[in-house]
Design a protein that fits this description.
Blueprint lengths: L10 E7 L2 E6 L2 E6 L11 H5 L3 E5 L5 E5 L6 E6 L2 E6 L13 H17 L6 E5 L5 H9 L2 E6 L2 H13 L7 E5 L2 H11 L5 E4 L4 E3 L5 E3 H15 L6 E6 L6 H12 L5 E10 L5 E11 L3
Parallel strand pairs: 3-4, 8-9, 8-11, 9-10, 11-14
Antiparallel strand pairs: 1-2, 2-3, 4-5, 6-7, 12-13, 14-16, 15-16
Helix pairs in contact: 2-3, 5-6, 6-7
The site of S-adenosylmethionine has 19 residues, from strand 9 and strand 12.
């Protein structure tokens, strides 16, 4: 059995429960909603009340931060060997999904191992719905060539800031603002192939020209298109999401369709954030395939 990777750095999940989570990020203690945390908290009410910023959702689906003494919305942190710009956005997001750290380490290991065995033959990785670039940067750090695709220019710029902070800005990374499906179809027409593909689709999203992405309708066609650009010497395929109903087995079956006939190994599970007490906070699901060698 491989040793589990425990990410270190300036992010810690302090406690969870009562459908909320208490996180330490840099100098900030944040309180955010976590509907999946349907158990009791372990820390005292006084410790929870000491949060520096609290994010509350309103009935319209929006929300806002309430600040105590500290009021900056931006900070830099080190986490899982990467350097991130954190922003307390109006949506309650921070620009970091710490639950992805296990996947980052899994990809880093696979890439380094393949590069070593092939004397550095290029590995091309496509990251779709790439957000602020955690997976892009982890793969780049390990030595792969990256194509980073997201529909929102603002988050692509944010990912570039993270690359600069992580000193990876001079590595081969193409930063693209594009619709995931349109881009993959274009790559298939151009016969551009990838050794690694990463997808972290939202439940609902929009491409740069308003193209609607609804996971229940649009994930299957996207996976079909990805199948066409997965190289014969592919190394890995990673699918993750935070959509209720998309269980590890659901994702496994979808990944199986993509890698059918290739051998290798598929594993699936919940993405987990370790809490300082040792408990785990389930935060989404994944299924991932890697080639035998
Ligand atoms: C990181 S993913 C979702 C993360 C997580 N699975 C969740 O559900 O919150 C969200 C990203 O997908 C991007 N996105 C949404 N629709 C897209 C599309 N059609 N093509 C490319 N990127 C898209 C968004 O801009 C956003 O950065």
């Amino acid at each position: 059995m491989t040793t589990p990777y425990i990410p270190t750095g300036d992010y810690t999940l302090l406690d969870s429960g009562g459908e909320r989570k208490l996180e330490q990020i840099g100098d900030y203690r944040l309180l955010r909603q976590a509907p999946q945390a349907v158990w009791n908290t372990r820390m005292t009410a006084a410790e929870w009340n000491a949060a520096d910023a609290v994010y509350e959702r309103d009935s319209t689906g929006g929300g806002d931060w309430q600040f105590g003494q500290k009021t900056t919305r931006k900070m830099e942190i080190l986490y899982a060997n990467l350097h991130f710009q954190i922003k307390l956005t109006d949506f309650g997001h921070l620009g970091l999904f710490p639950e992805q750290a296990q996947n980052w380490e899994w990809m880093r290991r696979l890439i380094r191992d393949r590069l070593q065995r092939t004397n550095g033959r290029n590995i091309h990785v496509l990251n779709l719905f790439a957000y602020t670039g955690g997976s892009t940067l982890a793969c780049s750090q390990a030595g792969a060539h990256l194509v980073h695709v997201d529909a929102a220019k603002g988050v692509v710029d944010w990912a570039k800031e993270n690359a600069l902070l992580s000193r990876l800005h001079e590595r081969p990374i193409r930063w693209l603002v594009d619709d995931a499906l349109k881009f993959v179809k274009r790559e298939a027409r151009r016969e551009n192939l990838y050794q690694g593909i990463i997808l972290d689709p939202p439940s609902f999203g929009r491409g740069p020209k308003g193209e609607v992405f609804k996971i229940e309708n649009d994930l299957m066609p996207l996976l079909e298109a990805c199948k066409e650009i997965l190289a014969p010497d592919a190394l890995f395929f990673l699918l993750s999401c935070h959509t209720p109903g998309f269980t590890p087995t659901t994702l496994r079956n979808e990944v199986l369709d993509v890698v059918d006939g290739r051998g290798g190994r598929i594993e699936e599970g919940e993405m987990l954030i370790p809490e300082q007490s040792g408990r785990m906070l389930p935060s989404g699901t994944y299924a991932r395939w890697h080639a035998e060698k």
